[in-house]
Design goal:
Strand order of the largest sheet: 8-7-6-11-10-9
Structural class: alpha+beta
Mean pLDDT: 84
Helix content: 25-40%
Number of domains: 4
Low-confidence stretches: 1-6, 650-657
Number of helices: 17
Largest sheet: 6 strands, antiparallel
Length: 690
């Protein structure tokens, strides 16, 4: 005998095998001829599939399998008969032959029969119940599908609805998902079981057609459950519940008359109650119902629902944490922005700030010495609390650097160094968030504006004649990247010119326009505005900002002023000690003309000390300026020596070295700032000292 070949001499054994298969085997088996008609069926087949009182002989196999998928069965039989390749585990949907007529799945093994000469005789078919195998495959397929369809967004309601849509009708005829009200607000629910009656809200509902009336609560409404029911027990001990006695009207259902009425009227016969819990906190409850499917839920269905609900709970908690962080970031960002931009003598300002996106954008108007003002706008296009916190760090650093009277390019260089240090302190898994910034300083005495950019869009300028242009400012590297070298550009602005500083969110058109087209749109919006400066700012925002955007929108308008002779005075004096007396006299005359004669003596002394330093340490002419604002009077001397003086405490026997000390005693504030050539030493007094 050879393996795989039937020995014709073993006829008695073969007959015994056939007798066993066709009389005592529990698996239904059929023999089909080449026309696919039944020629023989064993006892199990006759008992299981034969219609009552009819012989299977001469009938097609699909006539003996109630409600089986006839087309698929015919195709499978034909393929086996044609190719001779067996087909194993062919699953066919059908229904039982009994009075209950329940859905079930048949599994067929099909083999072609042929004699030793190769003539085709027909097909042998073994039919078994594949319902459990099919259900196991369906469960695995549903779990696999859940991995890609639940949690596609960080939205609580959307995630809950994804669970409901996935499981109807694959697992249940209806699914309701309720979450704690605090989850929708991003707050952390109490840890452990839910022992107290906390408000739940319907987050999702899905049902077969006709099942809409079963739900007591609509999506968005507060849902409540009576005490001492499977619902509250499930939330209390965090264990899933299988309830199969609905139609027997259990006592607990009487505690909820409306739910009882709807369940009994709709034929709901079984429930699955699964708590939604993740990371040790309860998030809500998922309820699975059956009324159309005749089979009640079983333990395998409960396990599947628990697995799906566990994944959903984790996604819900991720969404909750995201919403919480986003809310905190929004509050922090709103708290970090200037609550009200103070009026300034150098510029009139108006702004629009719409924190709608995940990023962290900001703007600042910072008063500087000598009536100057710094204008800044920045952009961190990255989501999260870390970005908002980083904005706070950068704004504090920017304010401190501005107080040092550094030029814009050096301010950005130092901000770049700080950003590099911040980046080095981040955990390895924390991504670097790019930061762009535009920093400009405007001097109302000279009308000169100096600006530098770290990869930020250039400001637009609305000139007094109504034309609009964009400043040509060298775009340096993003803060924290590259070499950190920046170049400043100087602009000469007349009185009434309007600077427009903005972020990329104002130009965000989802890539539909080029940069030139975006700037052209902004220019037209600026030029067409009317009314007050704030009216113009709002009009530009309405015209430019996209309706649907995930980017913050920032727009800052600053209309320039020039200080006239009643606010500013300037003299250039030769480098000669004899001119210091003339400088004192000029200061007194000017202050008398301004009605500030009570500051004449102190200001003349300050001017004398500062001018003496300029004559002593330089050899070129120096400039003396008086600048009057609403509250302060500034006296400053500008020379071509870039060395900054140091405040000294001279001994009683020293003949000099007391100039800056005297100045510091007479003023509220003083400092040194770099100039285009040399430096400026300024001293500030209050117009009306207390």
């Amino acid at each position: 005998m050879e393996w795989g070949r039937w020995d014709s001499g073993a006829a008695p054994l073969g007959e015994a095998v056939l007798a066993a298969l066709f009389t005592r085997a529990q698996t239904p088996m059929y023999l089909l001829d080449t026309q696919l008609r039944v020629t023989y069926a064993n006892t199990a087949a006759q008992d299981t599939h034969r219609p009552s009182g009819e012989s299977p002989a001469g009938r097609y196999l699909w006539d003996l399998l109630p409600d089986a998928e006839t087309g698929r069965l015919r195709d499978a039989l034909g393929q086996v008969l044609k190719t001779g390749t067996p087909q194993l585990g062919v699953l066919l949907q059908g229904r039982t032959a009994g009075p209950e007529h329940r859905p079930h799945v048949l599994s067929l093994d099909l083999h072609r029969l042929q004699d030793p000469e190769g003539r085709i005789l027909g097909i042998a078919a073994a039919v078994t119940d594949g319902t459990e195998e099919h259900r196991a495959r369906s469960r695995q397929a549903l779990l696999h599908q859940a991995a890609g369809s639940i949690g596609t967004t960080l939205d609580v309601l959307r995630t809950a609805q994804e669970l409901a849509d996935l499981t109807v009708p694959a697992l249940a005829d209806g699914v309701a998902v309720d979450v704690l009200d605090s989850v929708l607000r991003g707050q952390a629910p109490p840890s452990g079981p839910l022992l107290d009656s906390l408000p739940l809200r319907r987050a999702a509902y899905s049902a077969r057609p006709g099942g809409e009336d079963i739900a007591i609560h609509q999506v968005g409404e507060v849902s409540a459950f009576a005490s001492n029911t499977p619902y509250t027990a499930c939330l209390a001990d965090l264990r899933p519940r299988l309830v199969t006695d609905i139609q027997h009207d259990p006592a607990w259902l009487a505690r909820e008359p409306e739910r009882r009425r709807r369940f009994l009227a709709s034929g709901v016969h079984s429930l699955l109650l699964v708590p939604l819990a993740a990371r040790g906190v309860v998030l809500g409850l998922a309820v699975f119902l059956r009324w159309h499917t005749p089979d009640p839920f079983d333990r395998q269905d409960l396990d599947l629902a628990a697995d799906l609900s566990a994944r959903t709970a984790l996604c819900l908690d991720n969404a909750r944490l995201y919403n919480r962080e986003r809310s905190v970031a929004r509050l922090l960002q709103l708290d970090l922005r200037p609550p009200e931009v103070a009026a300034h003598i150098a510029v009139d300002t108006a702004h629009t700030y719409r924190p709608t996106g995940p990023g962290a954008d900001w703007f600042d108007v910072i008063p500087l010495s000598s009536a100057r003002v710094a204008l800044a706008v920045g952009d961190i296009p990255a989501p999260g609390l870390q970005s908002a916190a980083r904005v706070g760090e950068l704004r504090v650093a920017l304010t401190a650097l501005s107080a040092m009277d550094l030029p814009p390019d050096e301010v950005l260089e130092r901000l770049h160094a700080l950003t590099v240090r911040f980046r080095a302190e981040l955990p390895p898994q924390e991504p670097h968030r790019p930061v762009s910034c535009l920093y400009a300083v405007y001097d109302p005495v000279t009308g000169r504006c100096t600006a530098a950019s770290s990869g930020h869009p250039p400001p637009a300028i609305l000139w007094p004649d109504g034309t609009v242009s964009f400043a040509e400012i060298p775009a340096g590297p993003i803060l924290g990247r590259g070499s950190g070298q920046y170049q400043a550009a100087e602009l000469q602005l007349p009185e009434g010119a309007t600077l427009a500083l903005y972020n990329t969110g104002l130009l965000d058109t989802a890539g539909q326009d080029t940069t030139a087209a975006q700037q052209s749109r902004l220019g037209r919006a600026l030029a067409s505005g009317t009314g007050t400066l704030q009216d113009r700012c709002d009009a530009v925002h309405y015209a430019m900002a996209p309706r649907d955007t995930d980017h913050d929108v920032v727009l800052l308008l600053a209309r320039t002023r020039l200080l006239g002779p009643d606010r500013a005075a300037a003299w250039t004096w030769p480098n000669d000690a004899s001119t210091i007396a003339d400088a004192r006299s000029a200061v007194r005359r000017t202050l008398d003309a301004w009605g500030l004669h009570h500051l004449g003596d102190s200001t003349a002394l300050i001017a004398s000390e500062l001018a003496t330093n300029a004559v002593r340490y330089t050899s070129t002419p120096f400039q003396l300026r008086l600048i009057r604002t609403e509250y302060t009077l500034t006296c400053e001397v500008i020379d071509d020596n870039s060395t900054s003086p140091q405040l000294r405490h001279a001994d009683y026997t020293d003949e000099g070295g007391r100039g800056l000390f005297i100045t510091s005693q007479l003023t509220e504030n003083w400092g040194v700032r770099p100039a285009r050539r040399g430096k400026a030493i300024w001293a500030e007094q209050a117009l009306h000292p207390d």
